[in-house]
Amino acid sequence: MDFQLTEEQQMIQEAARDFAVNEIAPVAAELDASAEFPLDNIRKMGDLGLMGIEVPDSYGGAGLDTIGYVLAMIEVSAADASHGTIMSVNNSLFCNGILKHGSEDQKQRFVRAIASGEEIGAYALTEPQSGSDASTMKSRAVLSEDGSHYLINARKSWITSGPYARYLVLFASTKPEAGAKGITAFIIDTEEPGFSRGKTEPKLGIRASATCEIELADYRCPVAHRLGEEGEGFKIAMGVLDAGRIGIAAQAVGIAQAAYEASLSYARERKAFGAEIGTFQMIQQKLADMKTKLEAARLLTLHAAWAKQQAQKTGARFTVDGSMAKLFASEAAMWIAHQAVQLHGGMGYSKEMPVERYFRDAKITEIYEGTSEIQRMVIARSETGLR
User: Do you know which Pfam families this protein is assigned to (predicted)?
Assistant: First the structure.
């Protein structure tokens, strides 16, 4: 097994780190406090190729691999998880699905705009009454009599980047009686009549990443904007989430890395009872366990990225690899952030230090794109062969 990064992977990692340190980190706390969407930085990230890392350059992307994407996600998320969230949705949930299932016209029209950072993308699967059980969705799409368009009526919730998205991939049922096999995917232009946004959600963490409810009322979607064939939507949605979970695992690693590095620095500088607290056995135990969980999460995430790359060559599934990476990395991030707050003592509870933000941001990685409970179910079903 070769752990050596390629020159291209090192370049995107360094570019992401430089941008994160110089452009994101200085404004992260302020954006968290104000919940302001970092549109200017997202445009700059698009110019750097960070909003479409795996997108071929023929469609406006950087043309790199999944490992490069993971490395960049870690660096961006270590500076601010909100930027990482927006980056993840653009790369994993929007561009990935259209690249795999879209027509040439769809790739040129929709992927190019998102990969360049010119526009923002989103992914609309969850509904108020259907989260983990996505196949029970109430959204409906009816083909017109002349076969030119679909009339879509839908209400979707928890749409990341929804308040600012120009385009989104949306799932609706075209054949309700068929259950999951009756779901179809569509590409929605939010500037067309019939589309509306609800209030922006007041979230615990990733506060600069805007999230809202959306509604489509008699929205006319051209047949040319259907993604894949009728009835393939659920399969497309699950495949996109397989890839998306690798991005969330990388985000979790970034948060965990930031929390660990802040703790290591504090343990070296903070003194109590006449010595640096890093000399105390209990603090050393925390740091050792934090570092071990961090590196285990990093390796699982990089392995999942490698598995996705292999799947592109062989057609093999990487579902379990992505689920294991997301499960372990998200729970490691939450645990490490928790320990970071504890290690900082009273200062860890203060907004003057960034570790309380890491703690709040880490929690969402255990929830979105499949909760930890769902990841355990996916892994166990694969292992046992039972459902």
Answer: Acyl-CoA_dh_1, Acyl-CoA_dh_M, Acyl-CoA_dh_N
Q: Between vectors from CA 231 to CA 230 and to CA 235, what angle results, nearest 5°?
A: 125
Strands 211-222 and 149-160: antiparallel
Contact status, residue 186 vs residue 169, Cβ threshold 8 Å: yes
Instruction: Return the amino acid letter for 326.
Output: K
Residue from 201, 369, 373, 383 carrying the catalytic annotation: 369
369 is catalytic: yes
The residue from 231, 255, 283 where one domain ends is 231
**What are the 10-residue block averages of pLDDT along the chain, 387 residues in total?**
90 98 98 97 96 96 97 98 98 96 97 95 94 85 97 97 98 96 98 97 97 98 98 96 97 98 98 97 98 98 97 92 98 98 97 97 97 97 95
Residue 50, SS3? coil
- Find the DSSP H helices in the chain: 7-19, 25-34, 39-48, 66-79, 81-88, 96-101, 104-106, 112-115, 233-269, 281-314, 319-344, 355-364, 372-384
CATH of the domain at 85: 1.10.540.10
Is 267 part of any domain? yes
